Amino acid sequence: MTATRSGARGEEWLCRGGKRVDRRTNPEEAPEAAPRRGPLAPLAMLSRRTAPPLLIYLVAGMSGFATIAETFWVRRSLDLSPADLLALSAWLTVPWTLKMVFGHLVDTVPILGSRRRAYVLVGALLQIAALLGLAAAAAGVTAGVPAETVYVAASLVAVVGLVVQDNVADALTTEVVDRVAPDGTPRDPEVVKAELGDVQVLGRVAMMGGAFAVAGAGGWVAQVLPAAAVFLIAAALPLPSLIAAAMLREPPAAGPGMEPLEPPDPRILFGGLAFGAAMLGLGLGAPPFAQEIAFLLTLGVLVWLLRVTVAEVPPETKRAMAAAAVVIFAYRAAPPAGPALQWWQIDVLGFDEGFFGTLAQIGTGLSILGALLLGGRIVRWPLAAVLAGLAVLGALFALPTIGMLFGLHHWTERMFGFGARTLGLVDTALSAPLAQLGMIPMLTLIAMHAPPGRRATWFALMASLMNLALQAGAILSRGLNAVFVVGRGDYAALPELVIAATLVGLALPLVAIALLGHRLRAKAMPPPAGVPAAHAAAGGWSGRAAEAPAGGAARAE
Predict the structure, then answer these.
(1) Which residues fall within 8 angstroms of residue 434, CB to CB, at 6 or more apart?
(2) How far apart are CA 312 and CA 300, in angstroms?
(3) What digits encode the pLDDT tens for the residues 228-273?
(4) TM spans, by residue (predicted)?
(5) Quick check: helix, strand or coil at residue 554?
(6) Alpha helix positions (H), 286-382
């Protein structure tokens, strides 16, 4: 479906299936038009209905309030090496790879009749309990349990709480956009896609807004208060999730837009439990290459479940979706340099808690601005082009940090009068928006094809694959840290480590796009779930904005 307007007479018309429909003379026949895409178009989707998922995402963003205090507390008080912290970071991605199990519970196992509200409450309470545990560890009142043990356990519990809430929020972002009109007729797929994209933009903005609200405060508070006090303050931040639970309306069980309650799929639940037991055994037994084994096991489970999920999808579409998954995975698997880089910034550059808070606040503020200005448009661009461009920009924007590792800040201080802190601000300003801009088209693609009744399961399954890529990045980072060994106070190998991580992060998505980009054709992608195929075909759905009809009329933006 293409919506356009004749400039000569100002009459609005739409073209569907070769038939021109005048809105003024035939309003009852004219389908709804895709909304115009102004720079702040996503804000039009703000409503009481969209508020609950946005509040949950706000809490997820605010969960980083204690990060700076945690970083300095771990460095000063806990006996954990950079390798230990990298290993923990890899294990902390495991609950995110299990999102499909939590998501399936949210879809199919009501708690006291609730498939949404109850799970939000459970997740928020887990998050609060974890932060109270961290406060006790920082205060030294853990009844003889080592602080390192409490730190690991609390970190895992906090992640589980966030995963549970995130599952509900993800499902809600697909449910707040109606696929059918109140009279039961399907809505235009182009409009559905645009609104789903706008909701995903708002979700990213809400998450980044939460991070922005606490980023600077987290650093400043960490300077003046002990870590235990910071953790206690953080325990109060899940309040918006409790408000979201009070506002939340359960999805309807009947009528237009119904979300049917399906029975649990034993392949997902019992397979997930067996998978969780295997992961726990790997964690407790700590065999050689435990993280690598866990990664391969998780990948195998996800691939199997994806094959089950898309079993009825046409082969061409299946290949296109698989190619998209591989490209997204490669983009997300870019390895970080690890904690050694931040320790170098603390020890050598003199960055303190307050400055890290300032960097975080500037970065999140620019990310919000970038998402609002570009997010509504970027979902219309080809996925391969978006990810390739962001990967190249990410590598280029790493150059200020790499330059400082070779003394660039000393040269700029002598020549121009500004040093490391100014370069750090420039680096943050350039690179901060990239990660969130990359998430928006991925999440929109996932949301478009979430099936009724299993929206949380589908979203969680695809998000699990995306998060498994982060675990792959952590494993790659650990390998790079094993090759380029950096210890506390010994940063001789850090330049080579950062350069290697940057090059690997650039090469992974570019190689994947070069090999599979030809399969990411819009015509192979199915219409949004819940939109009948016949209607999508009549409306010209091709997975992207339709081209303007012949005759020179411009496409509405």
Answers:
(1) 390, 393, 394, 397
(2) 20
(3) 999 999 999 999 999 999 898 776 554 445 566 677 778 777 777 7
(4) 54-73, 85-106, 118-139, 201-222, 228-248, 268-287, 293-310, 354-374, 381-408, 428-446, 458-477, 497-516
(5) coil
(6) 290-309, 315-332, 339-347, 353-378
